[in-house]
Amino acid sequence: MYRWEITRAALEQRVLAIVRGDSYERATSVSDTLLGAGITSLEISLTTPYALDAVSMLRRETGDDCVIGAGTVLDASAARMAVDAGARFLVSPALDPEVIRTGHRCGVPVFPGVATPTELVRAMELGADAVTLFPAATFGPEWLRRVRAALPQAAVLPTGGVSAAEAPDWIAAGAVACGMGAALAEGDRETVTKRVSELLQRLQEAVPTPPARRR
């Protein structure tokens, strides 16, 4: 797949699940629950023990049915190892040009982290496929709405403190998707399945309607 195709697939549901655990077993168990609940795109944070093994395992088990990526990718070395492990996209809380270059050299989209309009513009100049607004809880949907009024071409993915209740507000403000961790995965399988189903419906309903073209 081309980078733009992977990007579209990764953000299609408008929610990107973030899995960060204290063990390989915990991370793979949470991933299994989320994927079983209907999530089609998730990242394994590299802060998780044996994270790359988890990425490889999930890629083997899901094939092309899901888009598995790596998160908390901080440098070019980590980016290359994540790609070699099978990650189909890379997410970072920071803006490192070498992470973007490494991902793109391997044909993999990169979503670097930004916290200011200046960083956002710089990320776009470097070719970022989308940007993560991190930590999103510090800003709020209204911040994004105001920034996108000046930069409507920015593909922004709020991450860090986004709740299931707030996620639709971010989408309504112009976010392409929301990165969600514990807020999405807490609870037993039945609880998670119900939450995911309801959230996906609410996110779809929150997508802004494009203005009608003038004739």
Record keyword descriptors for this entry.
47% helix; alpha/beta; 14% strand; 10 helices; 215 residues; 3-stranded parallel sheet; 9 strands
Please give the number of β-strands. Answer: 9
SSE order, one letter for each helix or strand: HEHEHEHEHEEHEHEHEHH
What is the first-to-last residue Cα distance? Answer: 37 Å
Name the overall outline.
globular
Query: What's the gyration radius in Å?
Result: 16 Å
Name the structural class: alpha/beta
- Estimate the strand proportion: 5-15%
Largest β sheet strand count, sense and barrel closure: 4 strands, parallel
Contiguous runs where pLDDT drops below 50 for at least 5 residues:
none
Oligomer: single chain
Helical amount among residues, as a percent range? Answer: 40-55%
- The total count of helices amounts to 10
Overall mean pLDDT score? 95
Adjacency order of strands in the biggest sheet: 3-2-1-9
Characterise the protein shown here:
The protein has 215 residues and is of the alpha/beta class. It has helices at 3-11, 24-36, 51-62, 76-85, 97-105, 117-125, 141-150, 167-172, 182-185, 189-206; strands at residues 15-19, 41-45, 67-71, 90-91, 110-111, 113-114, 131-133, 156-158, 178-180. A 4-stranded parallel β-sheet has the order 3-2-1-9, sandwiched between helices. Helix 2 runs parallel beside helix 3 (51-62). The longest helix is centred in the last third of the chain and has 18 residues, at 189-206. The protein is globular. It starts with a helix and ends in a 9-residue tail after the last helix. The model has no long low-confidence stretch (mean pLDDT 95).
